[in-house]
Design goal:
heterodimer, A: alpha/beta, 8-stranded mixed beta sheet, 5-stranded mixed beta sheet, 23% strand, B: alpha/beta, Rossmann fold, 2 domains, 10-stranded mixed beta sheet, 7 helices, 38% helix, 21% strand, elongated, binds iron/sulfur cluster
């Protein structure tokens, strides 16, 4: 747990703030007017802050529900994302958050009810069409559940709105909130994977592939729709061997008939994010690899990317039907 | 490594001058500066005089005098008042607010430490009523207005020793008293600073220019853009070929910088990226 909690003045008496400050009485409390006074200043070092990130309790004021970037989605007609948190306890070297934010502090927006209100408006505006809401875009949906209670809160909300779908995107094995709730057919728990050798090198503090698979299996047995996100695809020597092994590991354990969806995402970063991250981690093997700039995005050269996508697609389709496979979900 | 202190008073500086074995810089300039300079460690201190504008000016002066160093540790050390905190306690500022403008800075607390931290308000006139449960001083906001532009905020800190409170008013403060307060805390303060320096040293090591860089730029003319590409390629070299020295003689047939860069790039693109194998 963070040893410093920044609190926006206006929400110091919000029930979630009072609960958190009571639970962490030894954390130093620092008051601010708006979270961005702490989070946004330019001269901050994400890498250094990752050693001891603080928690910032804030109130989101606007932009509660946003349309997803093009290509993001798993077949739904209307796709949106919402972020109750910025930043993540894990430390994946490819994560775009490091390039997007200057601070590694965790921002938790405590006004969940305002998110709910906007989600309801969005559902209403869509009429009879299915709406998908993706969480875990600017954070991991489950990793800080003990602190945020986010999943527990939103399961109740989505349980009453069966026409709306929620995707929880995670690498966390903390699934108590899901264990203690009846499975919901409109809440999909999506786990991201890279092969263990890559994960060990690049996904710092993330539970092992084996542990994540075990948790996925348990969730599937409990009746939760589960999904697989092989995203981002990371190029390395012998990647074919590692990905083949990963697919075999996952599909040996999961019931393929009951998997909600499987998607692949290439490694891509906007140029400015890439520049920021590679400045923070000039010693990182990921950025020493063959990378190319294409239409403002840094990615593997097209021939590498295509080769990997084709290989992984072929392998995945050995295990699951094409209807649940989404080959190129944008990062 | 570079370490810079800003204090308001000579009495606040005395223990630091002693501890870091600093010598007065001559000839005297706008502000008194004390320094010690070895190849591995540059340390300097400026005495600003009282007040926010003086602290800002002295910080800027020291920065330019020292050659505008990057990623240096900057520490404002001094005394502060507080309505209840015990006199003599060392407290790290976790928020610095300029009372006149209401602008605030939030020094990131990346070090895990057990020292007390507290918000600090910089006032234009001595504050003897301590209306809020925070520290009061007259310089920190001036220091931050400049130091926050000189280095990453993690390396810019303000350390205050409580000199007065409701029981022990500011009227009793004199030179010897201030000197003693600093002397009593110098070891704790130096320990905190040392840990900050370790972070800064590590950061510098990560960002150090690859050794071969100078050899290349002496041999060929690189434009600024090409210099950046060269740095990137040489860093890739360090990661992909950690046991192999980048020998400039391998590129002697290159006629210009772009040939060097494409040759380096082509070679590195062919090197496999390995993860934990
Ligand atoms: S788990 Fe996701 S959000 Fe967290 S660091 Fe990794 S990529 Fe980023």
């Amino acid at each position: 747990m963070s040893d410093s909690i920044y609190i926006e003045h206006a929400i110091q008496n919000h029930p979630r703030v009072l609960d958190l400050t009571t639970r962490y009485p030894n954390a130093r409390r620092i008051f601010c007017e708006r979270y961005n006074e702490v989070f946004n200043p330019a001269a901050q070092n994400f890498r250094l802050q990752k050693n001891n990130p603080a928690l910032i309790l804030a109130q989101k004021q606007s932009g509660f529900v946003l349309p997803v970037p093009e290509g993001y989605g798993v077949g739904g007609e209307h796709n949106f994302y919402f972020s109750h948190m910025l930043n993540c306890v894990y430390d994946c070297r490819y994560c775009f958050l490091q390039g997007m934010y200057r601070s590694a502090n965790y921002v938790l927006f405590v006004n969940y009810e305002d998110f709910e209100c906007e989600i309801d408006k969005t559902i209403g505006a869509a009429g009879d069409a299915e709406c998908w809401f993706f969480s875990g875009y600017d954070c991991d949906s489950l990793a800080l559940e003990g602190l945020s209670g986010f999943v527990t809160h939103f399961l109740k909300f989505f349980a009453e709105r069966p026409r709306a779908y929620l995707e929880l995107r995670t690498k966390s094995t903390q699934i108590n909130s899901l264990r203690s709730h009846e499975a919901l057919s409109n809440v999909v728990v999506a786990y991201s994977f890279t092969p263990q050798a890559i994960s060990s090198a690049l996904e710092h503090k993330v539970p092992s592939v084996e542990k994540r698979i075990a948790v996925l299996q348990e969730l599937q047995q409990l009746g939760w729709p589960v999904a697989l996100r092989f995203d981002p695809l990371i190029y390395c020597e012998n990647y074919q061997f590692y990905y083949k092994e990963l697919f075999a590991q996952v599909f040996a354990v999961l019931d393929s008939q009951k998997i909600h969806s499987v998607s692949l995402g290439p490694f891509r970063l906007p140029k400015s994010f890439y520049n920021n991250i590679s400045r923070l981690y000039p010693d990182e093997a990921l950025f020493a690899g063959p990378l190319a700039l294409n239409k403002g995005m840094v990615s593997y050269p097209e021939e590498f990317e295509q080769e990997m996508l084709t290989f992984c697609e072929k392998e995945i389709l050995e295990h699951v039907p094409a209807e649940i496979f989404f080959p190129c979900v944008a990062v | 490594m570079s370490l810079y202190f800003v204090t308001a008073l000579k009495a606040e500086a005395a223990a630091l001058i002693d501890h870091y074995r600093l010598k007065a810089r001559t000839p005297k300039g706008l502000f008194p500066v004390y320094e010690s300079n070895t190849e591995a460690h540059a340390c300097a201190l400026v005495v600003s005089g009282i007040g926010k504008p003086a602290a800002a000016a002295a910080t800027a002066y020291l920065h330019s005098l020292m050659g505008e160093p990057r990623d240096a540790v900057w520490v404002n050390v001094g005394i502060a008042g507080h309505h209840t905190r015990e006199v003599g306690e060392l407290v790290i500022a976790n928020k610095v607010t300029d009372a006149a403008t209401q602008r605030s800075w939030y020094p990131p607390q990346v070090l895990k430490h057990t020292l007390s931290t507290e918000a600090l308000i910089t006032v234009d006139r001595p504050e003897t009523d301590y209306p809020k449960p925070v520290m009061y001083d007259m310089e920190a906001a001036g220091f931050y207005s400049i130091a926050s532009k000189c280095s990453s905020m993690e390396f810019v800190q303000s350390c205050k020793i409580i000199s007065d409170n409701q029981q022990s008013p500011a009227d009793d403060i004199n030179r010897d008293y201030v000197k003693r307060l600093l002397e009593n805390n110098i070891n704790i303060l130096a320990d905190f600073v040392k840990r900050l320096e370790q972070y800064a040293t590590e950061w510098r090591r990560i960002n150090a220019m690859p050794e071969a860089y100078d050899h290349f730029v002496q041999q060929w003319h690189f434009t600024v853009t090409q210099q950046n590409i060269l740095k990137t390629q040489l860093r890739r070299w360090q990661v992909l070929l950690p046991d192999q020295v980048c020998d400039i003689s391998a590129y002697k047939s290159c006629r210009n910088a772009s040939e060097v860069l494409s040759s380096l790039g082509d070679m590195l693109d062919k090197r496999p990226v390995k993860f934990g194998m």
